[in-house]
């Protein structure tokens, strides 16, 4: 970081610390030259293991804002939810949880000159609730070793991060709402929320590693997590029930609420993590046929949807240097991302061109 950038960052930190303490939250930076601040909000936020919820903010260009919803699995039973067992999700936001943008590359590598978000303000929405950022329920899961009581607080946690974004960046003109894995599923919902809050801004959504779930409505998940009553008011969900809402319908609800959003999806053809969760949910399948079917349906329903299907079994994009090394059908992933966020361009649809390329790592 140059001295000029360091001094600007220092001024931003001082201003934001004052705002944070006045709002009743705790804000810290790891080091004096750390571009990220870690925020521990008050209120109903919490992680599944009972520890405090924390998210991260980087203050740069206030007119351009990236809000990223982190991934980290999901849970729906005593076996999958118990932090002392074999959990299939991130259950805290502390050290080693995978919830710190400082540990990631890709869009969070602030020293990479190719990073399209290098000069953007960013809010990294950590994930520790097992409910794809959408839940609001306390659920008792019965198991052979005893009951596990789980607080699914994804909606409260996400709302706290968004309130911080609104306070710090009230005049953002470009807003990208992105998510990886579990965060990809939530990203269209929160894109609609942010589009309502920023009515004059260009709002772009990008989900990575979440479009391959070709499933009937996951009623048990929605009910265990308390998702339906917690859906944001901006969505017209009056006719939605846990027995009718498919995962891909989150895109349709968001598009109906905010037609100006540009929607985008990135997936790998045989994403190993999505295939793992399909099997855990009782629907084992190779990913690509269901992924293509979902995208075909969404392309028909959402005229502003653009997609990139890469080969191999890698999972998600924005957190990793795969962003800079991946090339599909002659199109680099980072070049595609640049077209996604450029207001003057329309991103192309990109798809691995044959079974050989789709299976290649």
TrEMBL record:
Keywords: Signal. GO terms for molecular function: hydrolase activity. Pfam families: PAE. It comes from the Bacteria. Residues 1-31 form the signal peptide. The keyword Cytoplasm does not apply. The keyword Signal applies. This is Pectinacetylesterase.
